[in-house]
Design brief:
mainly alpha
């Protein structure tokens, strides 16, 4: 066990979140023990439980922190084209998914019916939908409602497809990203006056290979 350091409550919480994130990324959810978290942090189990009363509470806090960070790193800049924004946002999320495969699978499979974890994911998806609506050229309220419905369904589609891809990689990461982006652009095209798909030229597989 590392030597115990005296930290403020906020610094100790930050340390435990970092340790938890590392362990949940490295191991399946069921294999992460609170004893291991305490040992890695160099503290007693009693002190750990004062900050997080259960493994579920620790995982929820870790996942909430990750969702907040993903939202902060997803840049939706009106100066960029829609395609550029989608590529950047997808890359940020896929980087996290691949680096934290076990944590993502835990949230979407092991804890799929958990209301706390589902609330975290729903809130992140709603925030992303709101941001996308803000940068799209919407002619009127009717168009806004239609596009909002498309975005809601598309974000769930991306989530499900990405989780399946983490379980069994049936295509490359770039193909997964481009499939998701192409699906949204195709769905939005009939609803928007401006053609936002003109610059979209995804990589095509080599048919001669």
């Amino acid at each position: 066990m590392p030597p115990r350091q005296r930290l403020s409550p906020s610094d100790r919480r930050s340390q435990l979140l970092a340790v938890g994130a590392q362990l949940f990324a490295a191991r399946p959810y069921d294999d992460v023990l609170m004893e291991d978290v305490a040992k890695e942090a160099g503290i007693s189990r009693a002190l750990l439980y004062r900050h997080f009363p259960s493994k579920h509470a620790l995982f929820a806090a870790v996942y909430q922190q990750a969702a907040d960070q993903l939202l902060a790193e997803t840049r939706l800049d009106p100066a960029d084209s829609l395609v550029e924004q989608l590529i950047q946002g997808m890359d940020v999320h896929l980087d996290y998914f691949t680096a934290n495969r076990n944590a993502v699978l835990a949230a979407n499979r092991v804890l799929a019916g958990d209301p706390v974890i589902q609330s975290i994911m729903t809130n992140e998806l709603d925030a992303l939908r709101t941001r996308l609506l803000a940068v799209l050229p919407l002619a009127d309220e009717s168009t806004r409602e239609a596009v909002s419905a498309v975005l809601k369904s598309w974000l769930v589609f991306v989530q499900v497809l990405s989780v399946d891809w983490l379980t069994h990689e049936t295509c490359t990461r770039t193909q997964l990203r481009d499939t998701c982006i192409g699906a949204l652009l195709g769905a939005l095209r009939p609803l928007l006056a401006d053609d936002l798909t003109r610059e979209w030229l995804p990589q095509r597989p080599d048919t001669n290979a």
